[in-house]
Amino acid sequence: MKYTVVLNGCSRNIYSQAEETASFVAENLGSAPPGRCILFYSDAQNKEELIALSPAESLLLVKVKQRDPEYYLSLLTGLLQNDTSSLYLFPGDLCGSELAIRLAHRLGGSSLAAVEKIEEDGEELHCYKTVYSGYLRAQLSLRQKPYCLSIARGGDTRRCRKAVKVLKFEELDATGFEKGSPLGEPEYEEEANGGLELEEAPFILVAGQGVNSREKITRLKEIAAEMGATFGVSRPVAMSAWAPLHSLIGVSGVITRPQLCIAVGISGAAAFFAGIEKSKYIVAVNIDELAPLVQSADVVVIDDYEAVLEELCRLIKEQPSLP
Ligand SMILES: Cc1cc2nc3c(=O)[nH]c(=O)nc-3n(C[C@H](O)[C@H](O)[C@H](O)COP(=O)(O)OP(=O)(O)OC[C@H]3O[C@@H](n4cnc5c(N)ncnc54)[C@H](O)[C@@H]3O)c2cc1C
After folding, report:
1. pLDDT of 96-120, one tens digit each?
2. d(CA 61, CA 254)
3. Whose CA is nearest to atom 7 of ligand 1?
4. CATH number for the domain including 83?
5. In a shared domain, residues 210 and 154
6. Residue bearing the CA closest to ligand 1, atom 49
7. Are 135 and 157 in contact (CB under 8 A)?
8. Do residue 161 and residue 75 come from a single domain?
9. What separation in Å is there between the alpha carbon of 147 and the centre of ligand 1?
10. 265 lines ligand 1 (CB under 6 A)
C-alpha cells in the first residue's frame, strides 16, 4: 500500500510525533513499498535534525509561514493533487486528527482518528483503536480510499526504530502560499483567540449545540474576542465542523483551568464537564433549568443565550477592568 506520512515540524511535540509515527510505520507498514514523508517546518528550525526524524526514505520538507491546521490543509490539498497514495498518516495530536478527518473529506476518502494498528485485506483497511475511555478495543473497517488516519498517542515506541536513511530529498518554500485551494475554500476562519491557548487562558467562552448554527458560532467567536475571552466549543460543535477540533473542550479535547468560564447552550455532560471543572467560576447560560451544568455552575442565567451574550459583551467592554 502506497503511503504518505505528514509531520508538523513546527509543533512542540515533533520528536514524540516522529517517534510514534516511525514506530507505527515499522509495525504496520514494514512490508509496504517505501513511503514518503511531508514535513512542515519554519525558519526557526534546524533542518538537519528534522531530516533525521523522517520515518520514510523519501522526504519533502515544506517551509511554512503559518502554523494553523487550516493553512496546512489548504497547502496539503494543493500538494497532493497528483499523489496516488492510498494511505495518509498523521500524528495523534489534535492538529493531526483534524487534518486527517478534513483531508479525507476533501479527497473523497475515509478517515479515523487515534488508530493503534492496521491490517489491509485488499478490499478494506481494518483499523484497531481503543474506545470508551480504554474499556473496549474496536475494529473498524474503512472501504473508501484514500484512508486518512491519525495515530494513537502514547503507543509503544520501544521497537521503533531502525534509523531510516533518507534517499530522496526535496524542499519546497511555501511561505508565499496563500490560503484557499482548488478543491474548496476553508471551512472556517482562523482563530481569533488573542494568541492564548485554551489550556492557559484565564477567561474562556464555550459554545455548545444550543447555539445551533455555524453563523451563530462565528458571531460568538467575535463576541469572545471582543470580551477578551478565548473561544472553545463542545463536541457536537466541533464535530459539525463549525469550529476547529483544537478548540474542543472535554475529555476528548482540552482540559482548561480558567478563572472564568462562560458556557452557553451546553448541557454539561460528564465528558464535557471534565474540561471545565477546574475553572474558578462557571457561568451557565441555558434555557433548560434542569440541564446538568445549570446544577453545578456558580452563576446561572436561564434564558436564550443570544440576547444575554450581546448584553454581557457590551457591559464588559464598558468596564475594561473586567474580568
Ligand atoms: C467517549 C466520549 C467522549 C466525549 N468527549 C467529549 C468532549 O471531550 N467534549 C464534549 O463536549 N463532549 C464529549 N462527548 C459528548 C458528550 O457526552 C455530550 O454529548 C456533549 O458534550 C453534548 O454537547 P452539548 O452540551 O453542546 O449539546 P447538548 O447536550 O445537545 O446540549 C445543548 C444545550 O443547549 C441548550 N440550549 C438550546 N437552545 C438554547 C438557547 N437558545 N440558549 C441557551 N441554551 C440553549 C439546551 O437546553 C441544552 O442543555 C463525549 C462522548 C463520549 C461518548
Report:
1. 899 999 999 999 999 999 999 999 9
2. 29
3. 250
4. 3.40.50.620
5. no
6. 267
7. no
8. yes
9. 29
10. yes
